[in-house]
Amino acid sequence: MVFRVLDAMDAPHSGRILRLRLQSGEAPSIKSLRNAEMLATGPAGESCRLRVSGFA
Questions:
Q1: How many domains does the chain contain in total?
Q2: Residues 49 and 27: beta-carbon distance below 8 Å
């Protein structure tokens, strides 16, 4: 599955809040995303790992 980042902002206490839109693939359940790890890749090829710690 591929998500597109719509917006990114600082979370009130720590971390970041990302607004995502599913771009391709089957939509996952919210339950399956909790505590999941994802690999984010930017347009220039840079990448980093993300961990879902909760939902705003």
A1: 1
A2: no
In a domain, 10, yes or no: yes
User: Quick one: CA torsion of 12, 6, 49, 1, rounded to 10 degrees?
Assistant: 140
Residue 21 CB contacts under 8 Å (≥ 6 apart), including other chains: 3, 4, 6
| Model pTM above 0.90 | no
Instruction: Give the domain range for residue 47.
Output: 2-51
Task: Tell me if 46 is assigned to some domain.
Answer: yes
pLDDT at residue 44 greater than cutoff 90: no
d(CA 9, CA 56): 12
